């Protein structure tokens, strides 16, 4: 720590930081553009100028750029100094020279950092009288709009896109006041994190193209803190509504989880909530019916039938719990394929009973040697990939510290480090989007990857059993991986469920545990497939196949399916048999799908933005999401549907919750593993009101005037302290309940500075969410002893693996119009050599036969896929009903086509 | 010193062709290198320090001191780099071109000695794209030197190796700024880098690097060969050596001369450049290239060295002068310069890209009689806004030097443009 003097007042500051970071952290207002807490300082915009004085006697001082000046002990600065203030206003004047004064029609207006900073400096009248430079804008795809005339050349976009996110197709072109930030030619931005440009850009150059289609100013949005439902990372988001539809998603800073950034699936997947496929009424036999009739029917079914319940990895803990209580734990089944269920359970066991803890995404960024086994992290858990991309810098940037280059001095550090990267080993069946920063990549079938893992563990600790019959090449790779992990300060092993291989999970654990045993603080992280996969598994459901059997045996006659399209979970034959055998099928869901199509009774479930609940992410952090707006029609949270206040004739004491706090306590009482979720967010009774609407929310009295001129009483929210109103209690909201970031003078999302204890650090009051498992100091564990046999390619029986796509593999986001434009066509990916043996050329059709299901898919020839393995796109129609991995046959179709032509 | 001692230009042939390696060696070439290789590298640096050689690219930083910041010894990062800044794009400047075209081996020898002093293994000559003749002659000379063992592995059996590459710039003024040059050499956008860290510590590809102007490097082996004391006696000032002084503009004999450092402006203009052309009166001079302040009649007796020119209110810069005569519009001249600088701004920092664009537009408006009185305030404001420290690098402060001094010395001309709503010279 250092003592620095601000306006002659001594303040404590972190001497490893720059003045801008320190001044903002201490609560001062100082305008800036090019600096970003996650990107560091480059000194381009010159906006954060302050006056620095040599000592107490120095009254002249000199202008310094705060973001480029270390907060060294004894530093004396003034923000108020008239010369510094004049300089800052002059910088804004320069930035405004070419900036179109189009705020009223600009999407950024009202949450524009440039507006805020302009007001902050006091610059208000225009002296520049010459013409402005203008540009031609580009088409950048369905996610972002481009309006280069607004650009102030702060360089943030390319620094985020290229340096931070590893993108290549956005760059700075030309010189002087005509620097152009765009692509080499019009086209869809390739990077999976491009949406962050809308937040990184301090003005309206890059704006949310999905928002534009149903545009609303930030101040007119009713917002709530939420959690992304499109993967297992659990990124914190803030969702905004107006006129009963969800308008957009922006980042909600959580230091431990997503930090400042979201992936494009998470940011733009929300539009499924507004889909015309939404179910908004109770359906009985496919026809809309009244609530009372529907509930009477459900009550009857529950009373008379033998019910089983099928849970969902995309439904909240609360909803899964409600179903589990309704049908009884013995009749509660996992709504996922058995393979996924068993691998997920294995991963949870490993985390619970092993010595290696599961890291937060922030901790992942700070790991300095990483082994990935069997995951294309970018396409499965995108934010983890963004963090991993930073982790490879951990070792090389130590050189900067040795040369006394501060780590915040971004370009200096990058020049020094150049292309040097710390260890990241990726072993996977096919190319991954992180290969470009990997130290080494290895391609093999899942069993081969597991064998590599076991070999690494053995190389780390001879007590760990060796994998027999390894090739010398794999043995050598294992040795190099072991050496890199062993010499790291904070090694990490990542695996997951993507390959559907339990052995792979065990192999990953084996490596982490071998490191732990040799005294390394190793961490172990798993990629789970969906937003609450871990939460569902912690509910201890029975496997889905057992539900199929129960129905066939006749031990059950009614099935209640929670937020789940079962056709994505099992073969068409199995699922159809279940749904046809059941006398009564009840489904709770928000979008129409094949399963709801077969239901006798459908209850309209609320989507994430319309309901409250808790999700468990891949770290095993329970996080609460809150309702942004009361849904239309009869829509309500599944756990509200499944309570005795709605269902008549339920025995007293069963499902007797009325509010979120009730059901959260019920879960905590019933399930020790989940007891901490009570602390995921403060309960309603602990708090006063927290407004969902900004102070300037307009139309309160007129928004419903077309229906009634009388202003209705705002709906009451019994489930949380959040109010459907502009009125807040006197206290700032606790971190888990911040609906949106705003502070006087800071209308843009950069206002998050005002909510952090230290800029770039945790939110005041701690990061939202609670970890469910924390490693005990002494834990008894044993190595896994069985290593899998090597994979043998078999031309009669291919190993068909799921191939994940950030756009398309996830069920809900695929329904969002913008995302749907980016979903690839279905294909079968196979090794070019295998294809040649099959006699198939690229683009020709292949018949893929798995059990009873047959698909004709275009061949995509690849060099990365191991022989005998074929890839099918996960979750993408028409193969979204296959449960992968699977064994199957591939046969060329060309002959058949010719035959037909004759 | 004898008045004729001109170490840098004595080899130049009157026919303008390059001195080949045989002629260069006959004239005592590569002796400095042979001698340096018998010394300890640090001792070479020490000699250069004692010679008071200062950088000839414009900033005038003591060369030996710069080298002494390079990490030395077995643990120093490898490879280290030496870069000759041959991106001579300063308007009015053509001194390095004369050296490279006429005596390319001199640069190679100077670089090799400098590389030895800092133990650099790899060198680059970063050459201005338009200098095709220099490129051709340097390329030939590098090949000759390599063949004769003055470059490459194990130079002259010393165990020291130095690979020298010629890199031809894609062409931007800012590439003359040493850190922007390094970015360009790495294939990146040519905007300057943060200092510190200085290139001596983290330069090309993050390795210790010395970037030195061509003329500076051409002095190095002479210092080694003849000693720092000899070098200091070449000068008429506190700083050592001779200087290439150039004059362009409406003088009788525009040209370039190697003269003792500290020769007065008047001597250069009147004796060497032959005074003003008939009927024209001298009004001012940019003493060191386009990015230096005007000096006027009262400064003609200023010795052209680093300290004295600074005292007069300008900078020695590259030592190549541009003369303004009475028949030329000072506003037009300054517009021309600011137009160049506005175009060449790399676009990195706000004051530079916004300020120069505005400045250029006002000056052009003035030339067309469309300026307003308040424009003068804006111009004055811009010269302060673009002051050193306010901008990321020294480009913009240099760019407004001719403007700020023109506003001082030729303010009447600016006012006439506004009042008469036209350029009085048109």
Explain what this protein looks like in three dimensions:
The complex is a heterodimer of chains A (902) and B (426). By secondary structure, chain A is of the alpha/beta class. Among the domains of chain A are: 2-96, Ubiquitin-like (UB roll) (Roll), CATH 3.10.20.740; 282-336 and 535-670, Rossmann fold (3-Layer(aba) Sandwich), CATH 3.40.50; 341-528, Dimethylsulfoxide Reductase, domain 2 (3-Layer(aba) Sandwich), CATH 3.40.228; 798-901, Barwin-like endoglucanases, CATH 2.40.40.20. A seven-stranded mixed beta sheet of chain A has the order 14-13-24-23-22-15-16, with helices on both faces. In chain A, helix 16 (446-460) packs across helix 17. The longest helix of chain A is centred in the middle third of the chain and has 16 residues, at 338-353. By secondary structure, chain B is α/β, with parallel strands linked by helices. Chain B is globular. The longest helix of chain B is centred in the C-terminal third of the chain and has 18 residues, at 350-367. Chain B folds into three domains: 21-233, 3-Layer(aba) Sandwich (Rossmann fold); 242-325, Ubiquitin-like (UB roll), CATH 3.10.20; 330-420, de novo design (two linked rop proteins). Chain B is built from 18 helices and eight strands. Chain B has a four-stranded parallel beta sheet with strand order 3-2-1-4, sandwiched between helices. Chain B has a four-stranded mixed beta sheet with strand order 6-5-8-7, with helices on one face.
């Amino acid at each position: 720590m250092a003592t620095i003097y601000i306006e002659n007042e001594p303040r404590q500051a972190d001497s490893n930081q720059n003045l801008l970071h320190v001044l903002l952290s201490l609560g001062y207002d100082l305008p800036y553009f090019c600096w970003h807490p996650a990107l560091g300082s480059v000194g381009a915009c010159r906006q954060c100028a302050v006056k620095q004085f040599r000592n107490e006697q120095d009254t002249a001082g000199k202008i310094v750029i705060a973001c480029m000046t270390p907060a060294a002990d004894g530093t004396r600065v003034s923000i108020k100094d008239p010369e510094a203030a004049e300089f800052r206003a002059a910088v804004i004047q320069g930035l405004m020279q070419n900036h179109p004064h189009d705020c009223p029609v600009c999407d950024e207006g009202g949450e524009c950092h440039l507006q805020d900073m302009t007001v902050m400096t006091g610059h208000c009248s225009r002296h520049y009288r010459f013409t402005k430079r203008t540009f031609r804008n580009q088409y950048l795809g369905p996610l972002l709009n481009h309006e280069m005339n607004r650009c102030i050349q702060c360089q943030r976009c390319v620094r985020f896109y290229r340096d931070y996110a590893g993108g290549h197709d956005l760059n700075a072109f030309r010189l002087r006041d005509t620097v152009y930030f765009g692509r080499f030619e019009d086209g869809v931005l390739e990077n999976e994190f491009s949406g962050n440009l809308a937040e990184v850009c301090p003005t309206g150059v890059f704006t949310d193209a999905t928002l534009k289609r149903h545009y609303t100013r930030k101040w007119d949005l009713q917002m709530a803190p939420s959690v992304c439902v499109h993967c297992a990372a659990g990124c914190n988001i803030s969702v905004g509504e107006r006129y009963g539809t969800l308008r957009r998603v922006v980042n909600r800073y959580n230091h431990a989880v997503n930090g400042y950034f979201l992936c494009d699936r998470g940011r733009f997947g929300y539009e499924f909530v507004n889909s015309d496929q939404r179910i908004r009424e109770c359906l009985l036999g496919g026809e809309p019916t009244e609530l009372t009739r529907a509930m009477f029917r459900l009550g009857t079914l529950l009373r008379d039938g033998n019910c089983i319940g099928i849970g969902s990895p995309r439904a909240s803990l609360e909803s899964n719990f409600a179903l589990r209580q309704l049908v009884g734990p013995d009749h509660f089944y996992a709504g996922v394929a058995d393979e996924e269920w068993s691998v997920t359970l294995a991963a949870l066991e490993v985390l619970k009973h092993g010595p290696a803890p599961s890291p937060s995404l922030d901790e992942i960024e700070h790991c300095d040697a990483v082994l990935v086994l069997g995951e294309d992290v970018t396409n499965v858990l995108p934010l983890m990939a963004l963090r991993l991309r930073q982790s490879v810098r951990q070792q090389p940037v130590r050189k900067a510290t040795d040369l006394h280059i501060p780590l915040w001095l971004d370009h200096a550090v990058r020049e020094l480090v150049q292309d040097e990267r710390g260890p990241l080993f990726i072993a996977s069946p096919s190319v991954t989007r992180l290969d470009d920063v990997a130290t080494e990549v290895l391609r093999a079938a899942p069993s081969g990857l597991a064998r590599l893992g076991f070999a690494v563990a053995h190389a780390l600790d001879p007590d760990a059993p060796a994998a027999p019959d390894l090739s010398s090449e794999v043995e050598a790779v294992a040795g190099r991986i072991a050496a890199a992990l062993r010499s790291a300060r904070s090694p990490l092993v990542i695996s997951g469920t993507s390959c559907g291989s339990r052995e792979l999970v065990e192999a990953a654990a084996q490596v982490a545990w071998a490191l732990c045993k040799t005294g390394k603080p190793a961490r172990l992280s798993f990629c789970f497939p969906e937003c609450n996969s871990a939460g569902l598994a912690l509910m201890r459901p029975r496997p889905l196949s057992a539900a199929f059997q129960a129905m066939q045996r006749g031990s059950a006659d009614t099935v209640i399916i929670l937020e789940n399209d079962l056709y994505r979970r099992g073969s068409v034959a199995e699922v159809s048999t279940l749904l046809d055998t059941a006398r009564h099928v009840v489904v709770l869901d928000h979008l129409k799908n094949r399963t709801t199509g077969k239901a006798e009774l459908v209850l309209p479930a609320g989507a994430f933005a319309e309901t409250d609940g808790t999700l468990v992410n891949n770290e095993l952090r329970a996080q609460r999401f809150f309702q942004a707006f009361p849904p239309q029609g009869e829509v309500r949270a599944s756990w509200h549907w499944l309570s005795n206040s709605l269902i008549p004739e339920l025995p007293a004491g069963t499902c007797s919750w009325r509010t979120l706090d009730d059901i959260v306590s019920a879960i905590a009482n019933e399930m020790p593993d989940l007891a901490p979720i009570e602390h995921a967010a403060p309960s309603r009774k602990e708090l006063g009101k927290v407004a969902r609407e900004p102070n300037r929310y307009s139309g309160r009295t007129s928004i419903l005037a077309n229906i009634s001129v009388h202003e209705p009483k705002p709906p009451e929210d019994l489930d949380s302290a959040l109010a459907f109103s502009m009125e807040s209690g006197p206290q700032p909201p606790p971190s888990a309940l911040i609906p949106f970031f705003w502070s006087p003078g800071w209308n843009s999302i950069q206002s998050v500075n005002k909510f952090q204890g230290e800029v770039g650090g945790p939110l005041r009051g701690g990061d939202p969410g609670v970890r469910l498992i924390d490693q005990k100091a002494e834990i008894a564990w044993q190595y896994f002893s069985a290593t899998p046999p090597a994979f043998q390619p078999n031309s009669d029986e291919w190993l068909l693996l799921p191939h994940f796509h950030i756009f398309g593999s996830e069920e809900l986001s695929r329904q969002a119009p913008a995302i749907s434009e980016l979903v690839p066509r279905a294909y079968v990916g196979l090794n070019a050599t295998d294809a040649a043996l099959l006699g198939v050329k690229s683009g020709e059709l292949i018949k893929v036969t798995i059990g009873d299901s047959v698909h004709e898919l275009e061949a995509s020839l690849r060099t990365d896929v191991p022989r005998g393995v074929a890839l099918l796109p996960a979750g993408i129609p028409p193969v979204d009903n296959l449960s992968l991995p699977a064994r199957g046959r591939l046969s060329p179709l060309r002959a058949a086509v010719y035959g037909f032509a004759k | 010193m004898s008045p004729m001692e001109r170490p840098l230009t004595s080899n130049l042939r009157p026919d303008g062709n390059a001195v080949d390696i045989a002629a260069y060696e006959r004239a005592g070439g590569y002796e400095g290198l042979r001698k340096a290789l018998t010394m300890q590298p640090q001792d070479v640096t020490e000699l250069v320090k004692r010679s008071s050689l200062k950088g000839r690219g414009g900033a005038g930083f003591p060369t030996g001191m710069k080298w002494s910041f390079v990490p030395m010894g077995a643990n120093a990062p490898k490879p280290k780099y030496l870069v000759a800044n041959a991106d001579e794009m300063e308007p009015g400047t053509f001194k390095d071109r004369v050296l490279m075209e006429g005596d390319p081996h001199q640069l190679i020898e100077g670089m090799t000695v400098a590389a030895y002093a800092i133990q650099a293994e790899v060198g680059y000559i970063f050459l201005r794209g338009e200098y095709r003749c220099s490129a051709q002659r340097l390329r030939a000379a590098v090949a000759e030197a390599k063949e004769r063992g003055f470059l490459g592995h194990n130079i002259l059996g010393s165990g020291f190796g130095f690979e020298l590459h010629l890199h031809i710039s894609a062409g931007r003024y800012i590439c003359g700024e040493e850190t922007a040059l390094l970015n360009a050499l790495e294939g990146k956008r040519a905007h300057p880098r943060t200092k510190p860290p200085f290139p001596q510590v983290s330069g090309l590809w993050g390795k210790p690097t010395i970037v030195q102007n061509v003329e500076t490097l051409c002095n190095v082996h002479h210092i080694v060969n003849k000693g720092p004391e000899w070098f200091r006696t070449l000068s008429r000032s506190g700083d050592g050596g001779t200087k290439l002084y150039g004059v362009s503009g409406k003088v009788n004999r525009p040209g370039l001369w190697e003269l003792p450092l500290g020769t007065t402006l008047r001597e250069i203009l009147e004796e060497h450049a032959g005074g003003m052309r008939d009927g024209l009166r001298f009004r001012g001079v940019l003493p060191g290239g386009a990015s230096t302040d005007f000096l006027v009649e009262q400064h003609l007796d200023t010795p052209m060295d680093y300290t004295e020119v600074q005292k007069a209110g300008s900078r020695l810069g590259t030592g190549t002068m541009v003369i303004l005569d009475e028949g030329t519009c000072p506003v037009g001249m300054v517009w021309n310069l600011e137009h160049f600088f506005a175009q060449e701004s790399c676009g990195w920092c706000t004051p530079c890209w916004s300020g120069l664009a505005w400045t250029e537009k006002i000056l052009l408006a003035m030339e067309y009689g469309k300026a307003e009185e308040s424009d003068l305030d804006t111009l004055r404001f811009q010269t302060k806004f673009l002051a050193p420290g306010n901008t990321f690098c020294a480009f913009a402060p240099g760019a407004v030097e001719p403007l700020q001094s023109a506003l001082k010395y030729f303010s009447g001309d600016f006012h006439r443009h506004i009042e008469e709503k036209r350029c009085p010279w048109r």
